Amino acid sequence: MRVLLVGGGGREHALALGLAADAGVSALIAAPGNPGIASVAELRTVTATDPAAVAALAVETAADLVVIGPEAPLVAGVADAVRAKGIAVFGPSGAAAQLEGSKAFAKDVMTAAGVPTARAFVCTDEASTARALDEFGAPYVVKDDGLAAGKGVVVTDDRAAALAHANECGRVVVEEFLDGPEVSLFVVTDGEAALPLVPAQDFKRLGDGDTGPNTGGMGAYAPLPWAPAGLVDEVMRDVVHPTLAEMRRRGTPFAGLLYVGLAITAAGPRVIEFNARFGDPETQVVLALLETPLGGLLHAAATGTLAEHPPLRWRDGSAVTVVLAAPGYPAA
Ligand code: AMP
Ligand code: GLY
Fold this sequence. Notes:
Elements: E1 2-7, H1 10-20, E2 27-32, E3 42-43, H2 51-60, E4 65-68, H3 71-75, H4 78-83, E5 88-90, H5 98-101, H6 103-113, E6 120-123, H7 126-136, E7 140-144, E8 153-156, H8 159-169, E9 172-175, E10 182-189, E11 194-196, E12 201-202, E13 205-207, E14 211-214, E15 219-222, H9 231-249, E16 256-265, E17 268-275, H10 282-289, H11 294-302, E18 319-322
Parallel strand pairs: 1-2, 1-4, 2-3, 4-5
Antiparallel strand pairs: 6-9, 7-8, 7-9, 10-11, 10-16, 12-15, 13-14, 15-18, 16-17
The structure holds adenosine monophosphate and glycine (GLY).
The site of glycine has 8 residues, from loops.
């Protein structure tokens, strides 16, 4: 199987290592890739968010499977363009990627599916934002509605700062604060069948001791020895399957990687957010523990045959990753 991997970050490096280690993968091409990925894949240049360009590259490289790493190409409809060429692709359609592309859309799906999540208001002006902030009280949670590379969320006790962030964003989701440790659960799905990976935890604040602004994630580890027994089964039952059913009902089934960001509150697990792709840096630790060949797993999800896939196998032990960021991150 020839695989084209789209993207070029740390997550794609982990995907490339996993794909290269799969004996079923005969050729691995990454676009644009990065210098680390170059040690296991042939690099090609492409504008990852250009659907026609990625589809043309998939044809040119005779790819049997295209794996799309980041969210921006997914939201731009790159998976649709590749599928239209008759090539299997791991990653949701542009319509289904709205689960990540719009926080308001995700809330709407969660409400329809009865998924436990924070109560929230969608606000587009200062008066409605102020009302929503006062309804929930501090700590205030204000989220940019659109994609913001994990940096669109402000959690603060400072009401003026919360209002200022809302003004900068335009359309925001204001929601109740969820108190409890966070868990990232990745689920591989073909739209109907779904296989959870091991839960991981990442740390989003910039500084040591969980201080400073939110980032895309500064480090991660897996598995989680402290996670409540039965957590994964509960989330599959109460969150993942109802969400997949609601997406099918809307005529936009979600196939690819459903990333469930959870807070484990005193009242039980609550969804903080959905993402439509593997998380970064959690993927680096989760895939380090996966023994099952990655290419075969993603191909099964891409071709609607996940129900026939054997159970996943995991290595014993733990994995940890730490992010080194350039000065000025995450502002610049
Ligand atoms: P998100 O982009 O939605 O994952 O938000 C980024 C981070 O902000 C999350 O990982 C949490 O640390 C924090 N966060 C988001 N929503 C909430 C919430 N309702 N309550 C508490 N913390 C939140
Ligand atoms: N680590 C958080 C994310 O990938 O969104």
